[in-house]
Amino acid sequence: MTALPTGARATVAALDPALAPELRGRLADLGFEAGTVVRCVRRAPLGGPTVFQVGEAQLCLRRSLSDGVLVEAPR
Amino acid sequence: MSCHTEQVLTADGATVAILGAPNAGKSSVFNHLTALRVRTANYPGVTVTRSLGHVTDGTTRLSVVDLPGTYGLEPVSPDERVVADHLAGRLDGAAPPDALLVVVDATTLRRSLRLVAHALGTGVPCAVALTMTDGLARRGGSIDPEALGRALGVPVHVVIGHRGRGVGELRASLLQWPGWERPVVPPPTDDAGLAAWATSVTERACYRPAGPDTATERVDRVLLHPVWGLVTFAAVMTVFFQTVFTVAAPLQGRVEQLFAWLGDVVAASVPHPVLADLVGTALIGGVGGVLVFLPQIVLLFLLLTLLEGVGYLSRAAILMDRVMALSGLDGRAFVAMLSSVACAVPGIMATRTIPSSRDRLATMLAAPLMPCSARLPVYVLLVGILVPAEARVGPFGAQGLAMLVLYVLGALSAMVVASLLRATALRRGGLPFYLELPPYRVPTLRTVAEQVWTPARTFLRKTGTIILAATLVLWALMTFPTRDAETAGMDDAAAAAYVLDHSYAAGLGRAVEPVFAPLGFDWRIDVGLVGAMAAREVFVATLGQIAAAEDPEDPGDALQQLTWTSGDRAGEPLLTPPTTVALLVFFVYAMQCVSTLAVLRRESASWRWPALALVGYGALAWVMAWLARTITAALL
Asked: How many other C-beta atoms are found inside a 10 Å radius of the C-beta of residue B111?
């Protein structure tokens, strides 16, 4: 999901199996479930983390977590 | 009523635990239910806290525990493991709750259902408090709370946080917790099953999700903009720091006037000289010295609480995340560091929001270096001696510039220490950073009041008692033995000076003198430093008493004219520029303030870290003061 360009939408395909199980659980708790639509809202200045729209909430993640969310382009 | 206790919280009667996501309005519900009569305490032996209150209808009494906000019950950090163990009954000394109240934000229902499912999976009776339904309606969404209750199989109560609507019914329902409906079948535990279950629940509850919060998006376009975001951030920070210096000043002036007047009244009416001195100097001076800071502390907490309540602090944490990452921390540590500018005690307590215990420890240990408001009177006093009031550097006043340098030095040192700690002793165990950006809200007056009053009350009680006790002890050390026989023939000023020179404090100061002699401090400054261990403000009171002993008429001048009374430098001025700079730098780094050590001990659940901070920062302060002195002497 890190590579998603600003403003683009995508659908969550899966969470990276290489990620630790509790982190995958937490990402799911935060709303990153298969089938959820995500949108890259903006990147923070100074190379900071990225804000994503996930369902109805806005979440800010660093690359180490957003790398763990695998998305596919919206159909 | 104590604000912080170490004892295990035992529930009298049954206990209901409140769960919910961090921005779901959980604290608002908790405050309304418990009518602000709360106690906060640690889980036994660890640094995780929970708040305990009560609800009662006159006959039944129910304990209510507010658990830390979380998105799920599967623990991701050691802190969350403590809470999970508590809920499962695996934690010694903390009985599991008898019932659970899950606070669910209606605007994020789909996601929140996972937490509800986890709660239902514990097998404990559950109920749901549905918040933000007004926000949902405003954004074009809708929900049928009763249908939601039928779909979930548990009671659902709508609560509108800032109006307190629905709290009465919720309270009544809580007291009837044994009668709560339970779901026939617990929700599935695997991801796919949970997703399907959540979808079916939202359909049966006739849930229409909210549209985007356009107002928030528009504001965020500015506040998180690469240029305007940083500009507004700088503006907010400027306002924040200006209150430290300028806004609080007139209020402080009023408080000072009050105490000066009180002091005069007492001095005039109490006949016995020692008693008059005790009440005048020690009591009124000590208490007054503390209360003078109350306007500042209250203002700073008010600003912080407003920024937090509106939702701006999450944006600030995101803007600062990259900068904090330089120290190996993340944006959430920024809030704790910012709070430490008011006082390290609440700043260290604010680190509870940092999920990684290593990050939290690093932030806690670095926080005391942030220039706190207690250092301010010391800085003002010493900068006043060092830099003449009219001096200017370009368009800026030199005194103001000197204060800024001291503040920047403290803040930078805090970042360096944090980064060193994260690179060495506290290397492993960082948790990935995630932060939800809540929609902008108007904070409720009640929550703001509570979140300003609680730390203010702690400050008054703890710091006040410590500062008062320290001022009294130091006053006694400097006034006794009274030496009436030897001072019989001297005039007032000489007598006071003689008593001071031969007091218990003098003995103490002279014993410590060799340690600080290379920095240029004499025994009187050393006595002040010892007093400052209790609280930094005491240093000013101590020096004031010393100066008044020299020249009761004009202590300010006397301070500048102090000379060494003995040793090789006898007769030379004491507070020379190198010495004053050394003293200032010493205060930047030294770990004074018993309250900070106490809260470090409590929040890190061990004596090791405060001891390390005390010794480490003491040594660092000595070395940096010596460096500063040497450099200043070389430059002049």
From this structure: 27
